[in-house]
Amino acid sequence: MLLIDGQWRAGKGADMHSENPADGSRVWSGKAATADDVDAAFKAARAAFPAWGRCLYPERVAIVEAYQAYLEANKDALAELISRETGKPRWEGLAEAGAMIGKIAISKTAYAERTGEHASDTAFGYAALAHKPLGVMFVLGPYNFPGHLPNGHIVPALLAGNTIVFKPSEMTPAVGEFMAKAWEAAGLPKGVLNLVQGARETGAAALDHADLDGVLFTGSWGTGKFIHEKFAGRTGIQLALEMGGNNPLVIWDAADAEAAARVAVHSAYITAGQRCSCARRLILPEGAAGDAVVEAIDRIAGQLSIGRWDADPEPFIGPLVSAQAARGVLAAQDDLLSRGAKAIRKAVTVAELGEAFLRPGLIDVTGVDVPDEEVFGPLIQIVRVASFDDAIAAANDTAYGLSAGLVSDDEALWERFWVEARAGIVNWNRPTCGAASNMPFGGPGQSGNLRPSAFYAADYCAYPVATQAQSKAERMPVKGVD
């Protein structure tokens, strides 16, 4: 179903559905939004904007907090839906639901710290700084965190006074519908948030719509690049683009090879490798120290528990979002091997569980010309180098710049790595995907426009306005005029 101007209605487009990737069972069915549906959603958002924008900030906060209360009261149901639609183990579904709830307090703090208001008296009245909403924002959600990531755009945008047209990933429409119903239950006025379901055609209709003030996007480099090019030169359109990364993890002078390997495993394989901050490239020294880390990762990868979202005991990872996604990872691995890479442990299908389940892979690409691409799954590429200078050069040998990590006992190496690593998230002895909602999230290059999410979302949801004012006009002196 679509939510347009406060009314739930069926889309007029093609049939669509989502499936549990573990067993193929149906999770959601409906029809996609057509261009006419999208047009109605934008008209509703535009009509709702003046009243919502004028709404006092405490009143907007009250509705956002009511949304938070709804999520808290329905956390288990939300977590189960996330797990069923994405395949994530139950513990990850609960973690994502918890992150959505936690986003409310963080977004209020961010809005106060990064926007805020202040005024001062002057000889001619007062001068003030305040912030205003931009207008109608189009939010595109990804499938890997179908609740948490669009929530990180929607909550700050609503707090700032914007209205929204929201399109979830076509892989996870049920979570998007749950979110829209949560906002409806919280008392959000009609038209302030409108839900359209669909795939490429629905997204294209929204991006083509004339009544658009911003695009808030989390997804692939290819789609983000298309959006960036589409709006090139249109400075009135706010873009927040988070587009993943080909992230490096350097392990150097780390005495405990097992500890280093476990950081690498968490970095590369958590969420079946479907986090944009996952490590894709592991950079190690030549020789025995690097060998010990590789051997430990290989052993751990062979022991990782893999299972359905509701398996007992809970697995470390579940399936990829679809069998097609799993096939894409295996195809990328085959391409690396055809170029001359060496398989230490090939990613393989876990046949007894289903085609979407993969046992993680470990591929040595040292000396091989490989594409600078984000392989979105549980596959890590090893690069062996002779010096720490070479390690930093290898880490930065990418057009992306989202996340980078160093595992080392040497603080001097860490200080150097922090300065020289070209990434927006730079971690020491922690996984590359260790990122907090109360910090910025983003990076340079093909990863996006530097800080398109998390705490800094307040920056792109409102713009600063400088004001000088007094209660009535006075006759100002004009040189040469009596």
From TrEMBL:
GO BP, sorted A to Z: L-arginine catabolic process
Q: Domain named Aldehyde dehydrogenase: which ranges? A: 8-456
Q: What Gene Ontology molecular-function terms does this entry list?
A: succinylglutamate-semialdehyde dehydrogenase activity
Active-site residues, as the UniProt record annotates them: E242
Against InterPro entries, the record matches this protein to: Ald_DH/histidinol_DH (IPR016161), Ald_DH_C (IPR016163), Ald_DH_CS_CYS (IPR016160), Ald_DH_CS_GLU (IPR029510), Ald_DH_N (IPR016162), Aldehyde_DH_dom (IPR015590), SuccinylGlu_semiald_DH_AstD (IPR017649)
Keyword Disulfide bond present in the record's keywords: the answer is no
Which UniProt keywords are listed? Answer: Arginine metabolism, NAD, Oxidoreductase
Matching CDD domains: ALDH_SGSD_AstD
Source domain of life is Bacteria
Protein family: Belongs to the aldehyde dehydrogenase family.
| Record PANTHER family | ALDEHYDE DEHYDROGENASE-RELATED
Protein's recorded name: N-succinylglutamate 5-semialdehyde dehydrogenase 2
